[in-house]
Fold each of these.
Amino acid sequence: MATYAIGDVQGCFAALQKLLAHIHFNPASDTLWFTGDLVNRGPQSLAVLRFVKDLGEKHITVLGNHDLHLLAVAYGKAQERKGDTLHDILHASDKDELIQWLRMRPLLHEDKFVMTHAGLAPVWTLEKARMLAREVEAVLRSDALDILLANMYGNQPDLWQDGLVGIERLRCIINYFTRMRFCHADGRLDLTYKGELAGKPQDLLPWFDVPQRVNAQEKIIFGHWAALGGKTSTANVYPLDTGCVWGNALTALRLEDEKRFSVGCA
């Protein structure tokens, strides 16, 4: 029995199958964790979504920003963007079933490790993050879904405050969970700079290097940040997005011994 956490697949079904063969995945005994962004940019988003859904209880998937974008497009609250590869899902015979399944995925999962798409806000304890994730998940699964999807895009507010209310509160939570890379020293998000670490503005820090990060003791698995190449020198953080959709690699982390496995992507 083994549990493998897998980085952003983003529609790269062939690479996913290659990785599962490499780790000798046994669906009868093993479990897969996915860091989100199952879909978009890659050529086989529909196949990925169907495969992961059919794993049933043998998988855990957290929502990523591309997954949320698919929900917004599917519910008519956003338009497809240049470079999106969602067409096959949106016109599939089982579209409604797949979208309903996707909206029920969590933002955070924990079992010795904590997994979210982009990480944990430096100012959130795990207890706080757990509470805020459930808050958004409840809306995603409710009749208020349309209102959230129509208003979740935007970079403000960029600093968490407990007093935030309404859609601004939900947007801020979603941005920390699914879009975060760099922060200021006070934990304020910067969602504009997406370049390499070496070229970052001096006032920005990777979220996991913010001073006095209150969740530094947690073992955090995340995806989203392909530019890290799956590597960081910071303890207790495990970046798994290794840029499969950009022709680099798809990576899995075996949780029992923290061994990594990777396969190249076409």
Note: Residues 126-140 form the longest helix (15 residues).
Amino acid sequence: MKVLHILIVYLITVAMVLPGYAAQKSRLHRILEEGVLRVGTTGDWNPMTLRDPATNSYKGFDIDVMNELARDMGVKVKFVPAEWKTIVSGIVANKYDISTSASITPARIRTVGFTRSYYQVATVPLTLKKFLSRYSDWEDVNQPGVTVAVTLGTSQEQQVKRFFPKARVRSIEAPARDFQEVLSGRAQVSVTSNLEASLLIRTHPQLAVIPVSKPRSPADLALMTPQDDLVWLNFLNHWITIKQNRGFFKALQDKWMPQP
């Protein structure tokens, strides 16, 4: 741990003397001066970020990542509530310095920056177990009589419009979620990441993943950052490399994403 601390201090020092730093201070410098790292998070994506409404506290894979980052920087972490439909604009409006993980998409990278990726997911459809005889692949869902639920502002919202042009798409605004529409009978199918789906079917045994030929739209997950702050982004990328090389992300994967 002493070696790791030295590496973190070295990266911060190097970032502070990069060309152009004096002219425009990075968020890295402000975070270190003020002692607070602001993290935007939705709190509704199991197992990455989950908010407990009773205590207004957060837990999950990404929450552990952010707590570790703040510890290595020697600052406190402040979690800022965010929604998928506005998580990008929250970065642009400087409501937080970084977000918990989000899918890297062409639409998003036009507006914000992303760190290097540390996990990959893909999209799968969910339905009730009693409906599995109706759906065996993607095209079975793409029918006029089918309602597909998706959470507003997620990367899957744009996907379903391409996947299911014949079906009815119902976009659900947080804090409600797409899979709840299936459980209530207001939709026959919802779509989400294969990661979240694997956990939802454990929590809600009446749900099942439709056995499609293969998941669609593989997506790299990364932390979202302001696009114009290369010093901050450079620091974060090196920090992720250090943590990956020392097994930190693998340990979190074993903790939050255990294999059945």
Note: The chain is about 40% helix and 25% strand.
Amino acid sequence: MPHGQGHSLRLDWRGEPRRVLLHDPPDAAGRRLPLVLALHGTGGTGRIMATLSGLSHLADREGFRVAYPQALGEPGTEDPARGAAWNAGPGFGCPLHPEADDVGFLEAVVDRVDRHGPVDPRRIFVAGFSNGARMATRLALEASGWVAAVAAVAGSPVAGPSPARPVPTLAFHGTEDRHIPYGGGTGSQGRRLAAPPAPEALAHWAALMGCDGGPERTWRGLHALDLWRGGDVEVGLWTVAGMGHAWPGGRAYAPGADAPAPDLPAAELIWAFFETHPLEVP
């Protein structure tokens, strides 16, 4: 994160002090800018999320703010019993904080950032990694009134009822992911929770968002994009060939963690997707 452009914001949420790492692009003062909420995985931190995703560098070039909130629980451990995690649904949060209202907290984060520097209400986006990806999809279901579009990297969508409005979604999943297997089932690493196969999960998600029919497939080298469309809504799944549990084009989230695919720039693809899907205000 470039020197001088990182801010540690504090907010009190339900009697507990919480912190948000915020990155402003150059010359941001006084400008109403898009905002990306970037959600870390289990045991992560805002700074880890900034490092692995590369979103701050992209924000400098493209002119948007990035907020990296911190989930409740212990940072620095992937132990699902203790590690900091977003309450994305039953079994997906930190057991130390089973009643965490992270939907409400993240809405409060947007308000806090807006007090720091004005946020464009039509361009509030959410990108998450692993447990943060699942939380991004929960926000799509429960906060569609202010979430314009979401991106989910290495995380399966959560189950839930149809949202008040369809939310455009772009997902990435490595074929060799051992935490949340691309082919479905329980991974040999991470949480011991079964997930559906990634293509099946995204097809169901696309139907939930009102997309009709099957996807159109395009290729970028060995990596395939399946894209479902319905009206103005798009749902896409990048199948990342040979990659494990990682953020394509970024950095490994910890020493010894799976290596990201170097030839698929997820941050750039996510921002290009977000730019084309602002919130439509009646």
Note: Residues 170 and 236 are 5 Å apart (CA to CA).
Amino acid sequence: MKLLIVEDEVKTANFLRRGFGEEGFVVSVAPNGSEAVRQIESGAFDLIVLDIMLAGMDGWQILSWLRATGRQTPVLILTARDERESIVALLNDGADDYVTKPFDLGELIARAKALIRRGKGQAAAVLRAGDLELDSARRQVRRAGRELALTPMEYRVLEYLVHRQGAVVSKTELLEHLYDYNWEKFSNVIEVYISGLRRKIDEGSADRLIHTLRGHGYVLRQESSVKIPAEAETRR
């Protein structure tokens, strides 16, 4: 998952970058409002962690700009103010959740994951696709009750595909959500991850879950659902 942290306090920003990075997030940091706007306009994020107290363009202005421009990216607010009136106003202006400073990193990450799941139509911590179960809290994957041993990168690819199940995900989209702005140098590895996932997920199962649409990307869905035209699908 791709995360933008908007935080002008360097120590806090580095702490958050490290914590979310260890959880498998691809993390970008914006130290001020103008840089946050630039990054949001140039790329898609699954979540924005937004500090309210910023110099110049503050977090409240960024939130207002986001919603005024029609962007629905979930926003998790960091605030030192816990007055009821301020919190209610933030939520009414389009914030999805908030955490007051000082915060517990584990709680913050759990809230972030919950917002991303809800934003993609998956409220529960255990995501399902047919007989495949992905436990995002424990980072465990099972198919038909059998636990699968995935590498960290295989897990991240699968997690994104499960969040987007039924939709075609391009190779570029996967790369952007797995790596930072230097993703071009990893452009040949997606096929390797997909191949490894297919081998582990489909072992002992009659139905394939991950399909390739030649020239378009990948889609996760059960074989028994709507068929992909033979001329569009290929195994890689």
Note: The longest helix spans residues 105-119.
